[in-house]
Amino acid sequence: MNYSETRELHDLLFSFMDMFHEKFLHSFRNNNESKTGMKKNHAKIIMMLYRFKSLTSTEIAKMLYMEKGSVTTLIDQLTEFGFVVRCNVANDRRKSLVLLTDSGKAQMEIIITNHIQSMDELFHDVDSTEIEQFADNLKNVVKFMNKL
Which of 8, 26, 98, 122 is deepest in the core (most CB within 10 A)? Predict the structure, then answer.
């Protein structure tokens, strides 16, 4: 790729991220907090565990770009809420995995339902053909990103 092609991809990616945050995440966060009472970083951890099944505190901290101590506090709170548990790794006593409880999985289903409601509102006036095209494009983006 030459510089101008790479620059165009850079600009498109950052435009997409800005719009994604503005159009989706802001709406998701507001809708989620008002309906579940959870803060955004609690919800992010639950979403990551829902997707990856189990993660270490260090992995979560890296994904959230946070200090491990801050993530430990969030995980402690989620443990108190009954949404996550810590499990020791058999071969490494220093490491523990964080997993969702059944209550945490149920909480994630509530979050997903809230997100779907937000999306329905956002897409209300959009033509169904455009939504299908958007979904196909996102599938291609995800497929491509998984190759990297």
Answer: 98
Q: Which two tokens stand for residue 78?
A: 């989620």
105 contacts 121 by C-beta, under 8 angstroms: no
Beta partners for residue 78, in sequence order: none
Confidence (pTM):
0.82
| Beta-bridge mates of residue 26 | none
User: Could you tell me how many residues make up the chain?
Assistant: 148
How many Cβ atoms from other residues are within 10 Å of residue 83's Cβ? Answer: 23
CB 26 within 8 A of CB 34: no
How far apart CA 26 and CA 39 sit, in angstroms, is 13
Sign, CA dihedral 102-31-11-139, equals positive
Cβ distance 110 to 46 under 8 Å? no
Name the token pair of 24.
């989706």
